[in-house]
Amino acid sequence: MLEPEVESRPWDEQLVLDDASYRTQLAYLLERSAFYRGKLELRSADEAGGLDDIGSLPLTEKTELKATTSAENPVGAHLCASPSEIVRIYSTSGTTGTPSRRIASLAATLSPIRRMCSGVGPMNTKPCSFTI
After folding, report:
1. 3 state SS of 80
2. Whole-angstrom Cα distance, residue 16 to residue 35?
3. Residues 37-89: pLDDT tens digits?
4. Measured distance CA(28)–CA(87) in Å, rounded
């Protein structure tokens, strides 16, 4: 096992941690995304309940996300990161329609030590192209 204390944690303890993480993420989403504030129609994350209640939230369709894009905002209204936090934008080729974009923030992709060692800082950009 890579992390025994995590991989062997009792299920009930893991559920408590997962519920807290879910509530934190939902609060972040509502604070930073106009799209999801409107879609979920919640005044606070507490209104949504915990992880046990996630099934009551509506699903988001790709067409809804694409409908919020424009020339000025090619990512869309669901974006939850400021430009200085974005380190990578993934884009599909658009074989079944128009391309879709996925955002990765610096904090979500690299640890602070790895960022510092690699010389990556806020607002650094580098185009890259690859095929999966």
Report:
1. coil
2. 28
3. 999 998 889 999 999 999 999 999 888 988 988 888 878 888 888 877 877 77
4. 19
